[in-house]
Backbone:
């Protein structure tokens, strides 16, 4: 332990044990425990207690104190647990009879303090930490702790009850890991006494008529099979599985949710390899539970890597049942075999769907979500009924929108329940999107496009439904087949696009910002992926979408402006924003650059400015035509604007752009000195390096540095180096290190270390470092820059910046000082908040 | 047995991250989704695993309601919706919806910038989360689904703060969030109607405090700022982007104008415009005075307060600077503090709470030598002042609200256990209602007796009215009818209408009784005697002697017959329908007393 902390500790312990000194901030005690955990993990707890006797004294004083707060008592129990986790320290504390006094009947357990959940929680957590060695097990048995833990499983506090269950598992595991390692006999007599006691308790609970007790037992077992890896767990299952199976005989099945969790936990463990009866239990459970309860179990079974085909078929049938019922109810005439291959629908599922709106919505949403989760998995059932599932998703969506009128009674009732139901619409659209990953018959895909269009057009669609509809549409469009022989969209998709774009146009004018934004996000993604496809380009250019998108740069909502920036940037990259530049309209494309620069300089919100920086970085990286015209001027203007930005993310993005520029000028990171390589060959077309020959002959560092000086990149980077926001300084440091590494092997073209320019730069930088950033650097000579770069301890700065800026405040000394300083000044602000 | 269950995951006996689960008539609602600024690991968010354990979040929860934009009430929202996976609706007022992302973004930046956390929600996640928000207007009843409805009430506290009534059928819960019962410079006082909820969940930050007038604190604040500026010092006021800062700006602006002061006042760049924008946009949410004078002069268009530039910090002379963040833990406010801390002429005023570990917390607890990065020690010579401007109801205000809403039960959250205990007793004594104060993770279960609404048919009501009795709320009376349960609705209708609606035939049910009379005369004569007797006794009823010898009174039929064994005794056969049950019973008892002797 740090000597300063050792010095502060006695005073702090005295404060903690003094009931007249409340601890102000409830996070302090937690942080103190974190610190002790770290300290004891790194060294001997015994030594720590011997060197700091105030700690044991604190525990004794806490026990004696009558009116101590429950928080301090809880803290002390947890602290004692941390120390006693090491066996020698445990013995040390035992000698002083401290542990029985803290955790036994004579301690808080028997007193009034026990009514506070914080104390009960501290007691459990203390024991949980303490129980690491055989001595701890003996102690638990001797002080009767296990019985208390049993009773705490039913605690009024969820946190306490849950922690009690976890502790039982931990003790059981510890007991079985000891002398009984490797045994898997289900015979109780072979097991350690402590484990026997816990298992008997679980057995009793499983046989209980009280559901909460059954739930507790099932939860404990779920944790056992989820976390414990010993062979003994197989023996445990052999012993307990008849009791678990007996739960299925009850009607209704008690604690069904916990039962499902347990069975899945067992199925994922090593048990199935030894007990094939488990599959039978799972099959029985599937058939005993209601459709809603059985859904999660069916999904879990289908996710298993290895399980009998019959069980998988049964499980898949359960997931499909609700959709099969919907298909059957909505069918106008007997059609081809549906989801269940013509088998009759389960009457129980149909009942659930029709009994109440909430049951119907719940069951359908679960089925849609479960199937959506299953779709992308490699272990999904095969054959996968893609076409009927598409039909079902479309039917559900149509029932929700009221665009189908089923003739059957059941269909009519379903329609009445589902019409306008946003929850089902959202789930069905997500599912429909997921189904885009599989192929479907042409007819189904046409239906999908038609229902998506219906939703995107409908005035009834809420903004969230529209967002999901846009997302599903995007997925379908991106997965649609390309015309054979070329990479363009197939005719059907093109037709859909032509119908879609007027709808998108309308949505971009929606009064609801969420809708405008979702529309722009959709457009950006579509353009990113299909910008080069003739069909898409044609349809887009024939619409007013690009023009509208540009108008949205003036949107009152900053989120929308930011999305409009990204979308226009993307459109412009693919020359989709306006008619291609012609002699009559030479400035058509150029105007966007100006417009975006204006956004960067003038927008009052950070999102649009950040978006502009991202677009510009992308443009520079990809060699956008407007940038390629004069990259130097472009970079200079952007950096100038970014350097003044109040948002650190814009400044950081400015450094990102500078780094791209450097890479183009000097070669990418990791490559050697640019002097050795011909710049134009390494740079992508349309980038600065291509433009350089006109400005200056490539190949020399001096020329590159001249360019960097002209765009004032150094001023920007040096200013950023002392930025009050750490990520900016870090990025700048990286950039300058990169630059120095690139330049250093080549040596300095001019040794300018002692020139007056260098001295002035260094003086200015010192002032900047002190926080006075008013003065500009002015024009810099490349030589001076290199000299300054060499003189700054960039590595040291990088190491300092690598630590989070509050590392001093987070230090244990700071914590102890703060806690001590807060004593006595808890006046008016003690209960204050935001 | 129907019940309401409440489990705080946060704000149960603490002032941390508010997050309260309410289950009402099978509907599950999460009230607030806050974060704790004092932690930088998982502990800053409520432990949602207790909900995910019950299955998928979106299936379990019907909605999330956010009371206001403070991070201890909404800071975990993007994490909850985008990282834990809640996909359902989130309700909040329009100003909260507009301001929430700004504060979340501010906090995200601090977490990423200062703490270097990579696994934190992103800007895109904040936006996606905000798209799930459904904005609600004050006093507008919003139907979450067919059964669940919510309604917002004005809460004061900060711009857009609201209390929410959550109603399922006849059961309801009111959640106050944070509220203020006294108006301040820019906001009005909280108000709720007498909605008599089954449960009122109220904050209790100042459970035992009667706060002094805010005017005193304001005077004190202005005096301190003025004195510092007068002696040529600089004043730093670290604030969060929106909220208290605007209140203090109004205060200073008015004071500067009144005193004709020239020292500049600056506000972190960009924030003045932003704040102005939102306050202008949501002017109906401010107090009466601001609303009234808005047309002549917008109080949020400050003449004296200018945007701050980093370079200004080095300018000589006095000035006042509002800078973010509010706890002096990073960014601009910390940078200015470091510059100015060494001069005893300067002053820093902390207008709110600071968590442990921040520079704000350290200087408030009196530390004057602060270790900074690189082993540098910063000596704080400037004056440090704490002034609480947090706008919470004090004990009096809480009692006032309980009185206003008239709940059946009260549950305290967002306060300290000891203080809650005191307030709990006070509420129980004064209002004779049960008061609860669960700790985090503890569930309070309240049995309820739901009243089932029954519609009464117009015909039945008209019939009742025809009897000439006007309805009187103070004199409830019995109304006879047939209760029909159809399509999950209950209706009380006349039996005729019930039969008609249900397509049933009417069955006649008659009660019969034999009364033995000692009478030696013939049966016909006995019948005449009965007729005369009843005619004289029952003057208001229609008594008839029918040709077949039987006597009727309304639907009651009386026939006289000879006794099979005793010729001196006659048997009266009395029968009546259930409608005349009362009269039938009366007649029987009358006849049992015998007939008067013939005169």
Residues:
């Amino acid at each position: 332990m740090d000597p300063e902390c050792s010095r502060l500790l006695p005073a702090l312990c005295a404060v903690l044990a003094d009931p007249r000194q409340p601890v102000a901030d409830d996070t302090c005690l937690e942080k103190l425990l974190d610190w002790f955990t770290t300290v004891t993990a790194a060294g001997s707890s015994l030594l720590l207690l011997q060197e700091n006797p105030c700690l044991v004294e604190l525990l004794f004083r806490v026990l004696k104190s009558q009116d101590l707060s429950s928080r301090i008592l809880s803290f002390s129990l947890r602290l004692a647990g941390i120390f006693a986790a090491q066996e020698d320290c445990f013995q040390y504390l035992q000698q002083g009879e401290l542990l029985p006094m803290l955790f036994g009947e004579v301690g808080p357990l028997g007193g009034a303090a026990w009514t506070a959940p914080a104390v009960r929680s501290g007691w459990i957590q203390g024991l949980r930490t303490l129980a690491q060695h055989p001595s701890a097990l003996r102690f638990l048995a001797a002080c009767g702790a296990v019985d208390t833990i049993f009773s705490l499983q039913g605690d009024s506090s969820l946190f306490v009850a849950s922690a009690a269950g976890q502790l039982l598992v931990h003790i059981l595991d510890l007991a079985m890991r000891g002398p009984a390692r490797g045994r898997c006999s289900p015979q109780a007599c072979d097991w350690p006494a402590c484990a026997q006691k816990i298992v008997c308790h679980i057995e009793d609970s499983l046989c209980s008529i009280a559901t909460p007790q059954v739930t507790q037992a099932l939860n404990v077992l779920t944790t056992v099979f989820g976390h414990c890896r010993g062979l003994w767990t197989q023996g445990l299952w052999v012993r307990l599985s008849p009791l678990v199976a007996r739960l299925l005989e009850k009607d209704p099945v008690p604690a069904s949710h916990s039962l499902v969790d347990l069975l899945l936990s067992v199925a994922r463990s090593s048990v199935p390899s030894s007990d094939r009866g488990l599959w039978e239990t799972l099959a029985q459970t599937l058939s005993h539970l209601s459709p809603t309860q059985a859904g999660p179990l069916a999904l879990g079974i289908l996710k298993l890597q290895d399980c009998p085909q019959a069980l998988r078929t049964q499980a898949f049938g359960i997931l499909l049942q609700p959709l099969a019922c919907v298909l059957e109810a909505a069918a106008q005439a007997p059609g081809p075999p549906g989801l269940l291959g013509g088998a009759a629908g389960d009457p129980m599922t149909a009942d659930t769907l029709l009994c109440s709106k909430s049951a119907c919505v719940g069951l359908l949403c679960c089925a849609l979500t479960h199937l959506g989760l299953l779709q992308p998995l490699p272990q999904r059932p095969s054959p996968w009924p893609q076409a009927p599932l598409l039909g079902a998703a479309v039917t559900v969506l149509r029932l929700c929108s009221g665009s189908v009128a089923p003739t059957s009674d059941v269909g009519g009732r379903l329609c009445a329940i589902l019409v306008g139901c946003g929850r089902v619409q959202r789930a069905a659209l997500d599912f429909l999107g997921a189904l885009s990953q599989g192929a479907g018959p042409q007819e189904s895909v046409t239906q999908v496009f038609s229902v998506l269009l219906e939703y995107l057009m409908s005035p009834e669609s809420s903004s969230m439904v529209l967002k999901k509809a846009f997302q599903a549409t995007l997925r379908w469009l991106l997965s649609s087949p390309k015309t054979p022989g070329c990479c363009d969209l197939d005719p059907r998709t093109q037709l859909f696009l032509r119908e879609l774009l007027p709808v998108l146009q309308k949505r971009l004018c929606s009064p609801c910002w969420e809708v405008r934004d979702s529309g722009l996000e959709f457009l950006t993604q579509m353009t990113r992926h299909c910008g080069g496809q003739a069909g898409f380009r044609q349809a887009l250019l024939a619409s007013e979408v690009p023009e509208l998108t540009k108008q949205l740069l003036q949107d009152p909502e900053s989120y929308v402006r930011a999305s409009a920036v990204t979308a226009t940037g993307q459109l412009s990259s693919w020359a989709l924003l306006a008619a291609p530049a012609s002699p009559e309209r030479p400035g058509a494309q150029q105007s966007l650059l100006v417009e975006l620069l204006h956004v960067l300089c003038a927008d009052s919100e950070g999102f649009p400015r950040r978006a502009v920086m991202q677009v510009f970085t992308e443009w520079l990286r990809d060699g956008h035509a407007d940038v390629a015209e004069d990259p130097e001027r472009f970079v200079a203007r952007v950096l100038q604007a970014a350097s003044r930005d109040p948002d650190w993310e814009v400044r950081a993005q400015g450094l990102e752009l500078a780094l791209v520029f450097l890479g183009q000028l000097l070669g990418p990171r990791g490559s050697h000195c640019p002097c050795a390589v011909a710049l134009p060959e390494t740079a992508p077309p349309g980038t600065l390096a291509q433009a350089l020959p006109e400005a200056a002959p490539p190949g020399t560092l001096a020329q590159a540095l001249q360019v960097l000086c002209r765009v004032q990149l150094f001023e920007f980077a040096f200013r950023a180096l002392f930025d009050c926001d750490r990520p900016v300084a870090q990025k700048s440091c990286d950039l300058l290190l990169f630059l120095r590494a690139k330049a250093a092997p080549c040596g300095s073209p001019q040794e300018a270390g002692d020139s007056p320019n260098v001295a002035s730069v260094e003086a200015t930088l010192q002032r900047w470092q002190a926080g006075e950033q008013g003065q500009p650097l002015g024009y810099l000579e490349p030589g001076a820059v290199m000299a300054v770069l060499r003189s700054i301890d960039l590595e040291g700065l990088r190491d300092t910046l690598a630590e989070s800026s509050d590392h001093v405040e987070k230090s244990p000394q700071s914590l102890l000082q703060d806690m001590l300083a807060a004593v006595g000044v808890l006046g008016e602000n003690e209960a204050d908040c935001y | 047995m129907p019940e309401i269950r409440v489990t705080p995951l946060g704000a149960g006996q603490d002032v941390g991250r508010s997050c309260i689960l309410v289950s009402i008539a099978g509907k599950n609602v999460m009230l607030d989704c806050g974060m704790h600024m004092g932690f930088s690991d998982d502990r800053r968010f409520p432990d949602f695993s207790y909900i995910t354990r019950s299955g998928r979040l979106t299936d379990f929860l019907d909605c999330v309601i956010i009371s206001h934009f403070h991070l201890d009430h909404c800071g975990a929202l993007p994490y909850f919706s985008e990282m834990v996976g809640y996909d359902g609706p989130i309700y909040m007022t329009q100003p909260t919806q507009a301001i929430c992302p700004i504060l979340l973004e501010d906090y995200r930046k601090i977490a990423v910038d200062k703490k270097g956390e990579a696994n934190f929600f992103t800007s895109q996640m904040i936006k996606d989360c905000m798209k799930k928000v459904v904005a609600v207007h004050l006093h507008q009843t919003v139907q979450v689904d067919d059964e669940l409805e919510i309604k917002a009430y004005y809460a004061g506290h900060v711009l857009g703060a609201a209390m929410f009534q959550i109603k399922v059928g006849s059961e309801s819960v009111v959640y106050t969030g944070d509220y203020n019962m006294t108006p301040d410079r820019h906001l009005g006082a909280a108000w709720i109607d007498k909605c008599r909820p089954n449960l009122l969940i109220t904050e209790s930050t100042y459970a035992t405090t009667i706060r002094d007038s805010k005017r005193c604190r304001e005077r004190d604040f202005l005096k301190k700022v003025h004195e510092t500026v007068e002696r040529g010092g600089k004043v730093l006021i670290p604030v969060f982007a929106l909220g208290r800062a605007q209140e203090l700006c109004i205060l200073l602006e008015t004071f500067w104008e009144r005193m004709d002061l020239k020292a500049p006042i600056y506000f972190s760049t960009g924030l003045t415009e932003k704040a102005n924008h939102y306050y202008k946009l949501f002017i109906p949410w401010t107090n009466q005075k601001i609303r009234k004078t808005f047309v002549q002069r917008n109080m949020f268009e400050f003449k004296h307060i200018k945007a701050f530039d980093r370079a200004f910090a080095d300018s000589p002379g006095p000035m006042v600077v509002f800078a973010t963040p509010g706890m002096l833990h990073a960014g601009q406010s910390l940078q200015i503090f470091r510059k100015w801390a060494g001069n005893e002429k300067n002053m820093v005023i902390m207008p709110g709470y600071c968590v442990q570990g921040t520079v704000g917390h350290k200087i408030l607890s009196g530390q004057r030598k602060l270790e900074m990065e690189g082993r540098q020690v910063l000596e704080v010579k400037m004056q440090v002042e704490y002034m609480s401007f947090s706008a919470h109801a004090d004990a009096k205000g809480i009692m006032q609200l309980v009185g206003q809403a008239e709940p059946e039960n009260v549950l305290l959250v967002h306060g300290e256990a000891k203080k809650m205990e005191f307030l709990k007793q006070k509420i129980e004594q004064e209002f004779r209602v049960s008061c609860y104060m669960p700790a985090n993770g503890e569930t309070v279960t309240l049995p309820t007796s739901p009243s089932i609404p029954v519609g009464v048919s117009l015909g039945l009501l008209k019939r009742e009215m025809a009897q000439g009795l006007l309805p009187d709320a103070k004199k409830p009376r019995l109304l006879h009818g047939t209760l029909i349960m159809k399509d999950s609705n209950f209706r009380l209708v006349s039996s005729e209408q019930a039969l008609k609606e249900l397509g049933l035939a009417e069955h006649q049910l008659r009660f019969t009784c034999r009364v033995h009379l000692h009478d030696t005369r013939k049966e016909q004569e006995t019948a005449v005697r009965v007729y005369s007797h009843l005619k004289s006794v029952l003057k208001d009823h229609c008594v008839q002697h029918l040709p077949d010898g039987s006597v009727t009174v309304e639907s009651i039929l009386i026939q006289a017959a000879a006794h099979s064994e005793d010729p001196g005794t006659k048997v009266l056969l009395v029968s009546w329908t259930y409608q005349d049950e009362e009269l039938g019973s009366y007649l029987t008892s009358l006849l049992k007393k015998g007939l008067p002797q013939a005169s």
